[in-house]
Amino acid sequence: MTDATRESGDRKGGWSRLAIAANRWFWRRSNDYARGQGWEVDRSDWGGRRYRDPRFEARKKELLESPPEEQPTSEPPPRKFSPGDGFPRKHPKIARAHDLIAAAGLLWRWRIEIALAVAIPMVAIPLADRLGLAATLLLAGVAVLAGGSLPPVRRVIGRVMLRHRFQGLCLRTSMRTPEGRMPLIIHTQSTPYGTAMLIWCRSGMSPELFEDYIPEIRVACFTKEVTFYRHHRWAHLLTIELRRA
To answer: Region (Disordered): which ranges (predicted)?
Structure first.
């Protein structure tokens, strides 16, 4: 198609022919490029162009004429959660262990608190003798406030709290061995989205045992998402990633 409308220019005089020539010159490069690509150029009014690729029309016609493909329907995987009373995952109720090994495990779980309970008097008593009781209490309050304002200290406190919450959940549910022994939390580490715990599964446990209690772990550890990562070599090592809400 052409851009010039010479009949209109002849009828309206020289000024109209000048406007048409300016319009053609302004759109010359765009029109040449469009025609080189095989596009159609529609002129709506002075200074306006509409470009259309006819291949889109052919593709649209092909899609409309072809019958729709049947999409395979996949059934959602069955959910493991089956509500019940007390122990909803159909695990037997396990009594707590009260032997020497359980006492050693209790000391290991509270090792940080026991160390603080021993270290604080060892530091506070000499300070009280030297500075006085009031000055020592004031200094301790300032140290607690200053330590609580530091992000590393807050992260350590958060990890300790989550560890105790998870261990308390193990005591209230069947996430234990048939003898009543709890899993060992070897290490906790802060992540950009929450906390990760490395767990040693004792004999009689399996990662599927923890996966059955994902809803309870979310509530106990104040998390939105719980992800399990099995060790590529050691089957008894399990990493639980707790993502914050």
So the answer is: 57-88
Q: Does pLDDT of 164 surpass 80? A: yes
Phi, psi of 118 (to 5 degrees): -85, -40
Tokens of 167: 């261990």
Give, in order, the Cα–Cα distances in Å from 121 to each of 84, 127, 128, 192: 48, 10, 10, 35
| Same domain? 134 vs 187 | yes
**pTM for the structure as a whole:** 0.56
The answer to whether residues 113 and 27 belong to one domain is no
Instruction: Please report whether residue 71 resides in a domain.
Output: no
pLDDT in tens, 127-161: 778 878 787 788 778 777 777 777 888 888 888 99
DSSP string for 106-130: HHHHTHHHHHHHHHHHHHHHHHHHH
Burial readout 32-55 (b: 16 or more C-beta within 10 A, e: otherwise): eebeeeebebebeeeeebeeeeee
My answer on whether 109 and 215 are in the same domain is yes
Residues 18 and 136 in one domain: no
- Return d(Cα 214, Cα 242) in angstroms, integer: 11
Residue 198 vs residues 116, 137, 183, 207: alpha-carbon distances, Å: 23, 38, 10, 12
